[in-house]
Amino acid sequence: MSARFLRKRRTLKTSAIARRRRKVFFIKVILVLLLCVLVVFGVSRLFSSKSLTIQNIEISGNQSVSAQDLRQTVLRDLQGSYWFIIPKKSIFFYPKKKIARDVLNTYPRILKLEIHRAGLHQIALSLTERKAAFSWCGLSLPEGNAEIGSNQTSQAADGAALASETSASSTGDTPALVVDVPEQCYLLDGNGYLFADESASSTAKYLKFYGPLFHQSAAPNASSTASTTPDTASPLGSSFLGAGNFAKLISVVNGLQENDIAVTYALWDGKDKISLGTESGYQVWFSVTQNPTEVIENFKAVLASDAFRGTSGQKELQSLEYIDLRFGNRVFYK
Question: How is 89-107 classified by DSSP, letter by letter?
Fold first, then answer.
C-alpha cells in the first residue's frame, strides 16, 4: 500500500511541475510578443515622426519639365508603407530606385537624374534634360517633299554637330511597333531618342528623319527588319535606327555638309537603305551597314569626276535624281 501511495504522489508532483512550466512558457511567449509589438510600434512611431520624414522635395536642373509635376510623381511613390510599419516617406527608407525609374519613364525629356538626401526632412532631385538636335516626322515623306528643309539647313548642321558629341550604347534590343503620326513631328536628341512633341517644345526647324522607330532599348542590326504597321501609341521613348547606326547616319550627314552639300531630310526604308535629301533636289543613297568614311570618299570621287566638272557638270548635278553609293566603288546615278 505504501509503495502504491508513493508512486501516486510522485505522479501528481510531476504533473504539477509540468503544468507550472507550461504556464511559465506561455507567459514568456506572451511577454515576448508584447515586447515585439511595442518595438514595432515604437519603430513605426519613430520613423513616422515629422523629424525623420520627407517634408520637402527640392528640384534643380529642370527647364522644360514642370517642377510641380515632378513633385507629384515623387509624392505618389512616397505614399504607403513597408509591411504597414515603416512609411515610404521616411528619410532613411524612401524608395529611391522606384522614384528614379518612374520619373525617367514618365518624363522622356530627362536624360540624367540624381536623387539624394538633403538633411533629415528633404530629398533633392538633380536632373539634366535632353537637347533637341533633330526631329522625326513619320514613316514616309509627305507629298511635295522637295520643299522639305528649305528653312532648316543651319539647324540641321547644328543638330549633326551636337550628335557627333553625344555617345550612347546600342546593346541588345527588339524592334517596336512603328508609330506614324501624319503632320506631327517629335524632337530627337543627338542619339536619335524621341523625347518631346516638337510643336509643344520649340519653334525651331530641325533636320527631319522619316522611317520606322524602335523601342528605347532597341538597336537594329544589319539583318533587322522593322515593322511597318502603324500604331496609335505615342512614339515618345522610342529611337530612330538605334544609337550605333544613328551615329553612322550623322557622320555621313556631317561629311556631306563639310563638302557644301546641304542635307534637308533623311529617310530610312526600315531595312538597309537610307536616302538623304539635298537642297539641290537630288537624293544620296547609302546603306546603314557601310562605313561612313567610305561613303563620303566615294561621294567626293563622284563630284570630282569629269561628268560633274565645270559649268556643264554643275548643270548635270542640278538635274540629278539620285546618287547611289550602296555598292562600294561602283557608284550609280541618274
Answer: TBTTT--HHHHHHHHHHH-
